[in-house]
Amino acid sequence: MTRAEVRELIGPHDGDGDEEREWYLEDLAIDFDAAGKVAFIEIAESESFRALLDGECLHELDANYAVAHVEKLAPFDADAPEPGYTYVFPTLQLSLWRPVVPDSSQDLDDPTGRTFEAVGVGPNGYFPKTGK
């Protein structure tokens, strides 16, 4: 889709985007390529959206379980950048992202990083396999 088609379908963007990325409905980010076509879609953890895969909301699952759930369909690329923070599944053109990786020093009541805050999808080739 073009930027104009996206705006016609969803409505105006939130106004806090740049030339490549626009935000819609607060929690939906859409990246556009140089030709003005959709290049990547990212859904932030939100009450407005649910990123479902085989009936499971990827934002609501424990991060380890979310990775295992997606791996039922395709492996993640262990050589992708930001290991532990970002999991990329090139076969599905899907990514999971969190801002921190919890460790033993994190308070058990602190939910930060225990689930993924963003789920992204791109067209074929957006996430090339980086493995050796």
Large-scale geometry: globular
Query: Strands of the biggest beta sheet: in what spatial order?
Result: 1-2-3-8-7-6
Instruction: State the distance separating the first and last CA atoms.
Output: 34 Å
Instruction: Tell me the number of helical segments per DSSP (H or I, 4 or more residues long).
Output: 2
How would you describe this protein?
There is one protein chain. 13% of the residues lie in helices and 24% in strands. The model has no long low-confidence stretch (mean pLDDT 91). The protein is of the alpha+beta class and 132 residues long.
Could you list some keywords that capture this structure?
132 residues, alpha+beta, 6-stranded antiparallel β-sheet, two-stranded antiparallel sheet, 2 helices, globular
Give a brief rundown of this model.
The chain is an alpha+beta fold and 132 residues long.
